[in-house]
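To assess whether ligand presence alters the predicted conformation, the chain was also submitted together with adenosine-5'-diphosphate. Input:
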Amino acid sequence: TQDAFSPLRKASIKIGFIFLAIIALTIVLSVFFSKRLTRPLRHMIRLVREIISGNLDQRVKVLSQDEIGELAAAFNDLTGNLKESKEKIEKVQAQLVHAGKIAAFGQLSAGVAHELNQPLTSVVLWESVAKKALAEKEIGVIRKKVSESLVVIENNVQRMTVIIRQLRDFARQSKSQYGEVDLNKIIENVLLMFGQQLQGHNIHLRRELKESLPHLYGDMHQLDQVIVNLVANARDALDEKKGGGLTVRTDIDGTNHIILEISDTGIGMSNDVQKHLFEPFFTTKKPEKGTGLGLWILYGIVSEHGGNIEFKSEKEVGTTFTLKFPPYSEIETVKLKKQME
Ligand code: ADP
């Protein structure tokens, strides 16, 4: 009986081996193919994460001609398009910032012309005083009157030089240049351009600048623009009420952060206006008076400086903008924030 079963047994052992071999081959093949499939997919997932975090320079290696290869190529095209679009958006943003600056410059120039009028009149007046003095008989009197006139003329010329330099610096579209800056000094220079203009608009200006304010790490020209925008908005809000008070205050808080506060008793803002305040092109002013770019630009500059903005406003009562910047000693924090953007 044993012999009668033996060919059957042999055959079943053979079949068993073949079966096992097929299973083993299937496992090997499926591991191989799943690795081929999952490795590039995992790679792509990693890249998508990088793209989300802002790195658009990464590309997937296209190694095969199959669907995975096609997917990788399509993925690379998509990343390339994204990068191009991002660059275009950044370019348009830079142009908008410049457009906003030109608009502010136009408004400022009108004020500056006004601002130069007073020292210029004074120079003309004292020049004639000096000329008349030359007709005096006594040399001592001539000397005294002429030197008096020259001092006044020199002071006025200096004032005009500062105003013009300030306007020129404001207009210059410079690449951002970070360094140690004294916010109080920037404020003084900006107010120099606005001074007479505010008086002419029946606006009472109050300076409450903290002595020995810590310096901050920033770009002088951009911070200039921040203050110009805030003061110009306050002036416009006050104009609507035919005048009022404008306070510019600097201080430090408990953590040595620098505070800049610009407060006005102007028309204030409705809740609806407050909601859209930092959107580009949002304006409630007439086209010749507003572009709607001021606060949008300001928001960008302040965040780039590692700072933040808060505001409080009540209709018909007034508005206060409070900006906070880290001090120069925290320069590394600002740099880090800039890198992360
Ligand atoms: P623009 O001044 O060109 O209109 P901004 O972005 O600077 O653009 O301001 C947007 C809007 O915010 C202004 O049109 C105005 O309605 C409102 N706004 C800004 N600052 C003040 C302020 N101090 N008081 C009242 N409204 C303000």
